[in-house]
Amino acid sequence: MAENQSLETLQTPGAVFFIFGATGDLAKRKLFPAIYSLYREGKLAENFAVVGVARRPRTQDEFREDIFHSIQEFCRYKTEKNEEFQAFAQHFEYKSLDINNVDGFRELHEQTLALEEKFHIPGNRMFYLALAPELFGSVSFNLKEGGMLDAGGWQRLVIEKPFGYDLKSAEELNEQIRQVFKEEEIYRIDHYLGKEMVQNIEVIRFANAFFEPLWNNKHIANIQITLGETVGVEERGGYYDHAGALRDMGQNHMLQMLTMVAMEPPSRLLPEDIRDEKVKVLRSLRPYANGDEVKKNVVRGQYVQGSSRGRDLPAYRDEDKVDPNSNTETYFMARVFVDNFRWAGVPFYIRTGKRLPVKTTEIVVEFQGMPNNVYLGQKHKLEPNLLVIRVNPMEGIYVKINAKKPGSESEIEPLAMDFCQSCMVGINSPEAYERLLHDAARGDSTYFTRWDEVASAWSFVDRIAEAWRQDAEGPCHYPAGSWGPKEADQLLAEDGFHWWPVNGQDEDNVVWQLNK
Ligand SMILES: NC(=O)C1=CN([C@@H]2O[C@H](COP(=O)(O)OP(=O)(O)OC[C@H]3O[C@@H](n4cnc5c(N)ncnc54)[C@H](OP(=O)(O)O)[C@@H]3O)[C@@H](O)[C@H]2O)C=CC1
Ligand SMILES: O=C1O[C@H](COP(=O)(O)O)[C@@H](O)[C@H](O)[C@H]1O
């Protein structure tokens, strides 16, 4: 490593990156743009190659044209068809094959050897599976059968979520993959772990003397994690109707954020130390004992026709490739308890949904009231202190405190101390996929989920899914463009709490909006 290079800017070693599913949505919107950003920032070694793999026929020129359009549309760096882009595109090749056909892999092997020779790549190979999970086992098997493995360098398998459909299918999948790859060669992506502010949770907690002493059930009243989306299911109705919000977001992104908030400080910042602490949280989640417990603590919803910002929005059941009688949840909210010394009795409220009013991911830590409120009887009720971590799309943190209203004799009002990171860094903050591809290529598995984390998360989620399967009532309905079923608000009200308003999209109004 060069002296002035930090780990963050360290170049990846020379390698071939295989994108299985290269004609798909994820590759187009996230992966190719991420590779281009890494290239532009000098984080990719010069001796790299990318091989796109899918069934559709493509000439090399057509494939490079696809890459160009994907970057133009979705990358934070813009490009033109100039010399610089041509030089980049020369590193890309395409291979049409069916994952289930081993002969295609043998041809891929020949193509790879030629590429490695051309770019002087020392046999390092990263296989990114941007595919439906049903194909993960076949790819692993055929990579081995087709002679693609043990090429003299390292080999890594990067797998998209969802990892399975439930614990049982995840175990089967894991077994298939583990016949070919070792656990330390498997990088299970949860792109929320690649987000700047999710990684920042760790720093906010463990690098600030005034948060960590308060980070427990003696001082925290509840924690609210919201992941709201304005989009519906778009073109992914076929997949989503089978998965639903619980499997699509709950089992992975929501529980991963919860682990980052709730974990104990690791003694060292090594990948396994952090992952050990995270899995302890997942194992401490209080399982819902039966269907009644699920009903008491979990709300599921599905959007019906509604509107947002003057635009009429269709019902979920009328979306493309969705069963018109579907009972799939597009929203879920749960009251979760982490049964350990630190968190006993503190409810974590987690919610996510499609077609909510704003696109936002926020974590709100609500602190308990003052032990002896000397301001009782004053005109204004003391508001609880809040620490809010804004993950997405605005990034930052704010702290809400009580202060004397300027100029008044005794009036107290809440005041927000706001740090808006995205206002400062703007669009140049790296995308989650950039960080994660960079990490995987450098062999850093910290922000990837280990098998025991995945399994524990499924164990927790399976009980909810099973209770829903047996419950004929189906999901509550909420109008598209609203904040979800009112039952979710009632659940907090039972505990004497309410949802804190999340930051809107109004960027001009972010800093002091709590005071309005
Ligand atoms: N899209 C997103 O925003 C996100 C996606 N994911 C996950 O990423 C994965 C991919 O998703 P997405 O890109 O949306 O899916 P798409 O359906 O858009 O793409 C699937 C890809 O798989 C290829 N494919 C399908 N069957 C075969 C086969 N038998 N042999 C070779 N290639 C095949 C398709 O190409 P062809 O038809 O040419 O063969 C296509 O390139 C999924 O696991 C999904 O859950 C996770 C988070 C977000
Ligand atoms: O994994 C997924 O995440 C996206 C939301 O990701 P974000 O980074 O845009 O917040 C979600 O739309 C999709 O359904 C899900 O599969």
TrEMBL record:
This is Glucose-6-phosphate 1-dehydrogenase. Belongs to the glucose-6-phosphate dehydrogenase family. InterPro entries: G6P_DH (IPR001282), G6P_DH_AS (IPR019796), G6P_DH_C (IPR022675), G6P_DH_NAD-bd (IPR022674), NAD(P)-bd_dom_sf (IPR036291). Coiled coil: none annotated. It holds the Pfam family G6PD_N. The active site is at H253 (proton acceptor). Residues 203-500 form the Glucose-6-phosphate dehydrogenase C-terminal domain. The gene is zwf. The keyword Oxidoreductase applies. It comes from Paenibacillus chibensis. It catalyses: D-glucose 6-phosphate + NADP(+) = 6-phospho-D-glucono-1,5-lactone + NADPH + H(+). Keywords: Carbohydrate metabolism, Glucose metabolism, NADP, Oxidoreductase. It is an enzyme of class 1 (oxidoreductase). NADP(+) binds at G21, A22, T23, G24, D25, L26, A27, K28, R55, D98, I99, K161. Pathway: Carbohydrate degradation; pentose phosphate pathway; D-ribulose 5-phosphate from D-glucose 6-phosphate (oxidative stage): step 1/3. Substrate binds at H191, K195, E229, D248, K354, K359. It comes from the Bacteria. PANTHER family: GLUCOSE-6-PHOSPHATE 1-DEHYDROGENASE, GLUCOSE-6-PHOSPHATE 1-DEHYDROGENASE G6PD. Residues 19-200 form the Glucose-6-phosphate dehydrogenase NAD-binding domain. Catalyzes the oxidation of glucose 6-phosphate to 6-phosphogluconolactone.
